[in-house]
Design goal:
107 residues, single chain, mainly alpha
Length: 107
């Protein structure tokens, strides 16, 4: 997964177009490709860190759902409605985090 900043996207686009013009003239500068590779490498490292953070968040949300289910099962009758509401909220949060992980993995 790549995660480019806006500045990196602009710089990469500018370098790509410059390389395209140079390729048309059959005179490509190797330093140009190296700069693009450095931008790609930093974006890949950033993307990996962000994906690991999403995995951690998903794991925490799964744990929260498990705790909420246990709370529903052990709650007295008067507190069961509140426990079920907390379970629904935890499941919704888990669904959001799973969606974010899926989206990030498929980019």
């Amino acid at each position: 997964m790549y995660s480019y900043t806006r500045a990196e996207s602009r710089e990469r686009r500018k370098l790509f177009l410059k390389g395209l013009r140079q390729a048309a003239a059959d005179n490509v500068d190797p330093a140009l490709r190296q700069r693009i590779d450095r931008i790609d490498q930093s974006a890949a490292e950033r993307g990996e860190r962000e994906l690991n953070a999403l995995y951690d968040a998903r794991g925490n949300d799964r744990q929260a759902v498990a705790q909420a289910k246990a709370a529903v099962r052990t709650a007295p009758r008067q507190e069961r409605a509140a426990a079920k509401q907390a379970l629904r909220e935890a499941e919704q949060q888990l669904k959001r985090s799973e969606r974010a992980v899926h989206k990030a993995e498929n980019q």
